Amino acid sequence: xxxxxxxxxxxxxxxxxxxxxxxxxxxxxxxxxxxxxxxxxxxxxxxxxxxxxxxxxxxxxxxxxxxxxxxxxxxxxxxxxxxxxxxxxxxxxxxxxxxxxxxxxxxxxxxxxxxxxxxxxxxxxxxxxxxxxxxxxxxxxxxxxxxxxxxxxxxxxxxxxxxxxxxxxxxxxxxxxxxxxxxxxxxxxxxxxxxxxxxxxxxxxx
Amino acid sequence: xxxxxxxxxxxxxxxxxxxxxxxxxxxxxxxxxxxxxxxxxxxxxxxxxxxxxxxxxxxxxxxxxxxxxxxxxxxxxxxxxxxxxxxxxxxxxxxxxxxxxxxxxxxxxxxxxxxxxxxxxxxxxxxxxxxxxxxxxxxxxxxxxxxxxxxxxxxxxxxxxxxxxxxxxxxxxxxxxxxxxx
Lengths: 206, 182
Known about the structure:
The complex is a heterodimer of chains A (206) and B (182). By secondary structure, chain A is of the alpha+beta class. Chain A has four helices and ten strands, in the order ααααββββββββββ. Chain A has a five-stranded mixed β-sheet with strand order 1-10-9-6-7, with no helix packed on it. In chain A, strands 2-3-4-5-8 form a five-stranded antiparallel β-sheet, with no helix packed on it. In chain A, α1 packs across α3 and α2 crosses α3. The interface between A and B is large, with 46 and 56 residues.
């Protein structure tokens, strides 16, 4: 599109054309898709800016967010994962549903059971059950973190005993709920916040 | 994800601080505006801002696969505002945060904020002379007075129309690259 044509299009979009010129332009726009899209974009940009309620952040806030990267880099040595510099807190198991009288003696037969853990940082309840594939299929772990104070747990990962860390992380939602899938075995479960990793040690998945 | 964003995230993952600075610069306005629109105080808005960028920093490895970084930031920021509102309510410090009634933003609001971000982003990518002229023209009344704008910008009145057309062409090119649609 030539510059003079674009100029006329924008003049039309701004309502600068005389009535007869505007009518001719309307007819032209009905037959020219590229031109009508340009006018629509011009009007959309104008409408967007005229109703814009965005606010630029103060420079100090931008600077503090920039510093996050350098601070993390300073804490992390080359080759480390982001969680390696976090403090570890190990929780204690305070309830094992398999030990309840109703299930005593039938450990292998129970299809669903609950475990509860306690720590200074948060309490965690987990339910472990079959994931739909029967006895030999994957197990489904659903849990909820109840933090103490302002702790916000964001991620959860399953760590094989002896492994360096989780192979993958899953999200913990805003209500502290999470879900994992695993095979039968023993695992540590890691729950990560900004400042610490809460470890649920030696969780037996049957 | 938009190609520029994917490249920025990848460069952050490679440890390039300048890429993180660019990411904060690019999305700072989008993130900061959300708590302000939701009537959080200045201090709470700054806390939300820091929290969101802290989360983004820790999740860079997953963000490189995010479809749209702007959409992810809007969702995350809104959720942090909601959390902040919940904390405030729990401690009965401020009832004004009741505006954040849900954990996720209404889709029409999220779309509007994303569009505003797209236009701002496009404006930052064109030269200053064009940015100044277009902003002045767009923010004026339905049919802006060229004489007033020409006087304000120190330009001949006769050059406003042709310059505006050239500048809009530049803006449109960036908008199309960013996926902006009318």
